[in-house]
Every structure is written in C-alpha cells, then in structure tokens.
Amino acid sequence: MKARLPKEYQNRGANNMNSMIKQAQKMQEDIERVQAELEARDFTASAAGGMIEVTMSGAKVLKEVKLNPEVVDKDAIEDLQDVIVAGVNAVITQIEEVSAAEMEKVTGGVNIPGLV
C-alpha cells in the first residue's frame, strides 16, 4: 500500500526550488542594478587637511584632482593635476587587468558578476 500525501504537500520540493531560483535571479538583478547605479555616481574625498581633493566615478575612473595652491608652484598646478589623474588611472587599469586574469584562472573562464 502506498501512502499518499495531501495535495498541499505534493510538489513542495519543486515549488521550494523554483522559489529559491526566483530569489537568486532577483538578487542577481538587484546586484546588477546597484552596480550600475554606483558606476553612474561620482565620489569626492579630501585628504591632508583639505590640501587635496579627489573625484572618482563609481566605475573607479579618476575624474579630477584638485590641489591646494599652497602645496605646489601655482604656475604648474594644472599640469601636476593632469599627471596625477593619468598615473592613478593607469594603475587602476593595471589592477583590473591582473584581477581579471587571476579570477579567470580561479573560475575557469566562467563569468561570475561582481567578482572583478
């Protein structure tokens, strides 16, 4: 004789699995949305008692460096700011390239959003 489960218990495992899959998909969509929102924002921070102010996008691209004129020669301040921006962006690019290569080794080339 076979035992029969009441209808509310039948397919419960499948429904639970479907619910978990939907939750994971929603979480992935939320993560992607938040990442896009952050990348669209600009962030500004100051250091050294306000002697330097740096603005970077959420995508980690340095946009501007402002130096207090007391720190450098007033005639060369714009050139110095541009060189700092270029140097910081170059090292960020290098870090991202190395990180992507290392993650690819770990994941076997499988793209996992948000890891790099």
From TrEMBL:
One cellular component term from this protein's GO annotations in UniProt: bacterial nucleoid
Protein keywords: Cytoplasm, DNA-binding
Coiled-coil features, chain-numbered ranges: none
Pfam families in alphabetical order: YbaB_DNA_bd
UniProt cross-references to Gene3D superfamilies, sorted A to Z: Nucleoid-associated protein YbaB-like domain
Subcellular location(s) per record: Cytoplasm, Nucleoid
SUPFAM superfamilies membership: YbaB-like
A GO molecular-function annotation: DNA binding
Taxonomy, superkingdom: Bacteria
The keyword DNA-binding is annotated on this UniProt entry: yes
Protein family membership: Belongs to the YbaB/EbfC family.
NCBIfam families listed in its UniProt record: DNA_YbaB_EbfC
Stored HAMAP family: DNA_YbaB_EbfC
Subunit architecture: Homodimer.
Function: Binds to DNA and alters its conformation. May be involved in regulation of gene expression, nucleoid organization and DNA protection.
Protein name: Nucleoid-associated protein EUBSIR_01657
Organism: [Eubacterium] siraeum DSM 15702
